[in-house]
Fold:
Amino acid sequence: MELQRRQDQNHPERKGQKRKLEEEIGDEREISVKSGEARKALLSEVSEQVKVLNSTFSWSEADRASAKRSTHVLAELAKNEEVVNVIVEGGAVPALVKHLQAPPLSEGDRSSKPYEHEVEKGSAFALGLLAPEHQQLIVDTGALAHLVDLLKRHKDSPVSRALYSVIRRAADAITNLAHENSSIKTRVRIEGGIPPLVELLEFADTKVQRAAAGALRTLAFKNDENKNQIVECNALPTLILMLRSEDAAIHYEAVGVIGNLVHSSPNIKKEVLLAGALQPVIGLLSSCCSESQREAALLLGQFAATDSDCKVHIVQRGAVRPLIEMLQSPDVQLREMSAFALGRLAQDTNNQAGIAHNGGLLPLLKLLDSKNGSLQHNAAFTLYGLADNEDNVSDFIRVGGVQKLQDGEFIFQATKDCVTKTLKRLEEKIHGRVLSHLLYLMRVAERVVQKRVALAFAHLCSPDDLRTIFIDNNGLELLLGLLGSTTHKQQLDAAMALYKLANKAMTLSPVDAAPPSPTPQVYLGEQYVNNPTLSDVIFLVEGKRFYAHRICLLASSDAFRAMFDGGYREKDARDIEIPNIRWEVFELMMRFIYTGSVDITLDIAQDLLRAADQYLLEGLKRLCEYTIAQDVSLENVSNMYELSEAFHAMSLRHTCILFILEQFEKLSARPGHSHLIMRIIPEICTYFTKALTKPNPHNLRL
Structure:
């Protein structure tokens, strides 16, 4: 990730360099080569300028003036990316490379040199503009050796504005030639380009310093040999001094060089820290230059990558507050880099509470809403670190962090995994003093915090603590209050929490065991179903006879015992008429009484449930409820709940409640949803109260 981020940082560098070059030479001419005639005219103009350059390599004032004008024209044309290939096709590169060096002096000629440095400056500038698309061609034509020589011109030339300019253009051209090209970076080192660039960091002209640092920054990226030579040339002390410069352009380039030097180079990182870079880098977090702030945050993240002591030192020296302020910047890259740095710092136990205490939680949680995947992941990784400290858990929950983590839409799978691990870390810490503090908040804090705590408890607490939290400390009341609110989001949060709570309680089951019969159950067996042998009672159902046995019926339910032992007229009757029950239903009911089991299909389950309720056959009711429960859907859950009420089908009722809680969001779009929710709240309350007050075999923990 760090490598990718460093690469991303270098993409804007190339474009920024080219914009800078364009701005300094003047207004760009609008040239288009879309038409054949325009391309032909442009190629003719380029060829004319190349011809001039090839014929003016002398110290003649007229030749120097003509050459200067031609380099200016070619540079002006090269500002338009559409025509760069035409310029190269016209043979401009060899001509420009030739003019990177001064023409030879005639023997004994000591006269003044007209336009000294000007032609070389123009050539370096034009080649710098052509470089992004034609790096290898320019290098193969021999430009590097001449550019490196230009870096040293100050050693044998009097100081002048033109001298400063030619050195700066040479450094800029090397930057563009070496950008993202490992072989050319190596060639620059072989040609001896690194020592003069390091020396130029101390040059009197700040623009030259900046250009030299920019070149070193590019040369150091992903090239260990170049990094080592830059350090060996004693660049670090000067670079660290540049970090303290009041010139934003200077400290921006300096922090970029150092960042590329330390990247994936632990030994250089140690040298940089020993040289005193830490404090000035931290100081750049408060710079007025957002680019320097971004680079400083990235560099601090690199400093903190593996060294635990360094993580602590960074925080002790005051990095946390500015990094947290950067989290709220409108600059997305600034937010990303500050979250990256804080993520590294948050992996140290000593730093975790400090980051949260200084106000880091809320802005980090807000960044989870970002549409930028890297920014989102950096924020999630930081929160993962903060969740490891139990001093942060209550604050995490108090500000709504658990709901934020659960509700987030995360772009990368790695971010989703990180969030899952963060919630797991929080869950592991809900005990002891953390649990006590959260219970205290749930009792005395403002109402919104109480609700957040109750919601978090439902997802994170141990099953052993359910009664303590939701009964003894009124957590259930808070969740039911949210479920009954008029705000959809609060209702949805409460439904999810209650569903989680139900699973933890492990008591809301689609089929509960039937209560034991008051008398020992007797099953005569399949062979006696509707068998006249030993039959002592006949039921008339839809005009058909059903032969039964009183002993089996008496043992099956209170309803039959009342029928045959009580004061009803059926007590002594031989034939008993059964109204309002279909033959198929009655036969299945009797088969259950005789065998204790029966296969129930959906098309008959509701009628059989009605019969089982009428004759108080609890075991058969549960089997019917189980079959019906398999058919509960968004379309029929309301009717199923009514059915459960009509026939006292508690298992089916609880299945409907669970279904409503689980599918709350989908159900909320359907008509009658609000009425259904208000209708089931009392039943939810009754059920959870009963479930959570059952004797717990484990001791409740505080």
Remarks:
- The beta strands are 537-541, 544-548, 575-577.
- Residues 136 and 175 are 13 Å apart (CA to CA).
